[in-house]
Specification:
The chain is mainly α. It has a domain of about 80 residues: Winged helix-like DNA-binding domain superfamily/Winged helix DNA-binding domain (Arc Repressor Mutant, subunit A, Orthogonal Bundle). Helix content is about 40%, strand content about 5%. The chain has four helices and three strands; from the N terminus they run αβααββα. A hairpin with a 2-residue loop joins strand 2 and strand 3. The chain is elongated, with a radius of gyration of 36 Å.
């Protein structure tokens, strides 16, 4: 069953789709690239996908699957040491150069959506009608 997982991960990286690879595309890749002597079984394929999502190796985005960030980092770390070991030895000079410390990027801020508080409706204001008294006017004769 591990060859299914390896083939699925390799398929997703080779398909290289931005929003993730669909289940049908992964299935087609696995069917065409299984090791010799191995027969494709749909139940085993689906179970392997399900377990990979549960373990955190794959991430399901809508109807597609992507390789998780942790799995990408682990794969990158495995590749880098092999290349570093093949470097030829160089002569050391008497003066040593100081390396600048690596700049740390600021952590991304999480955006939270604030729910608006319900607006309280106050009772409609009563109209105040002012009564004006009429002045009594006297007529002069």
């Amino acid at each position: 069953m591990s060859y299914y997982k390896e083939t699925i991960l390799k398929g997703i990286t080779e398909l290289n789709e931005r929003s993730g690879s669909s289940l049908q595309a992964i299935k087609k890749y696995v069917q065409s690239n299984l090791p010799k002597g191995k027969e494709y079984k749909n139940g085993v394929f689906l179970l392997t996908i399900k377990r990979a999502v549960e373990s955190g190796t794959l991430v399901k985005v809508k109807g597609s699957y992507k390789i998780s960030a942790e799995t990408k980092k682990a794969a990158a770390k495995k590749v880098v040491p092999k290349k570093a070991a093949k470097k030829p030895a160089t002569k050391k000079s008497t003066t040593t150069k100081k390396k600048a410390p690596a700049k740390k990027s600021a952590p991304k801020k999480k955006t939270t959506v604030k729910k608006k508080a319900p607006v309280k409706k106050s009772a409609p204001k009563k109209k105040v009608v002012k009564k004006t008294a009429k002045k009594a006017t006297s007529k002069k004769k």
